[in-house]
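[SOLVED] Predicted holo structure with adenosine-5'-triphosphate

Edit: marking solved, answer below. Original request kept for reference. I posted the sequence and ligand SMILES and asked for the 3D complex as structure tokens.
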Amino acid sequence: MSSSAAATAAPGPLATSLVLARDVSKTFGARKALDGVSVSVAAGEMVALIGPSGSGKSTLLRSITGLQSIDGGKGTISVFGQTVQKDGRVTGARAARRRLGMIFQQFNLVGRLSLFSNVMLGALGRLPGWRGMLGAWPSADKSRAMQALHRVGVSDYAAQRANTLSGGQQQRGAIARALVQGAEGILADEPVASLDPVSARKVMELLVELNKRDGLGVIVTLHQVDYAIRYCDRVIALKAGKVVYDGPSTGLDTKQLIDIYGPEFEDAFWEAKA
Ligand SMILES: Nc1ncnc2c1ncn2[C@@H]1O[C@H](COP(=O)(O)OP(=O)(O)OP(=O)(O)O)[C@@H](O)[C@H]1O
């Protein structure tokens, strides 16, 4: 483990904590996907979660959102100070998910609905069910949706069915949906993995903007180390379910990259290594 990883092995409570995970393990059969992971992310931080394929990145994000239970025992996870997992049981995850915008590699829009309707779905958590079901959206939410689409640069496509849009347009729509939801934090699981480099950069720039301008905390899993370094101040690296680096992205030197990815570490750079 690097010295910076050791420094964060036992995170203290933060007054404004986006995520506080302590000693989290998750076992699938004989395999430990997470093995005593402790991470603490403050509300306004932007953190990249990196690591080789199968290192536990998605498992950690799914555990944070309560979409998946962690092993029983002493592991705990809280989001915005509220417990999501304790004693191997998921509690309060719905409340946490209302405050978290989730962005996925495959965009997770409803393909046959328009981009606008998809973005409006972000408001569902705040509306009585029947209004959303009937499409009787409050006009304030409708204008909020259009503003969000405008902000992420895809308002021209509002009426177009989501499954006819490019990947980059869909991912920007997913970010607009999180804005309409009023998310206070974003968990993005490989948001650029299915995109071309130009669209990928745009999506990363939007996430940075939400972090820097709106103060949203962002945790983003990335396969591309160069993107983690370029866009995120802090990097947490997992390897075989353990945290092997937690520190400034500028501190990721060749030795650490070899520790994380092995001698083929340059394969983890998407664009040419500087
Ligand atoms: N539902 C599941 N059932 C069994 N094993 C699982 C399940 N989910 C994840 N795993 C295993 O847990 C380990 C961690 O998987 P995870 O998807 O979290 O890794 P990852 O770092 O996100 O990988 P990738 O970068 O390839 O998406 C892997 O060995 C995976 O096979």
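OP edit: The first helix runs from residue 3 to 7. Thanks to everyone who chimed in.
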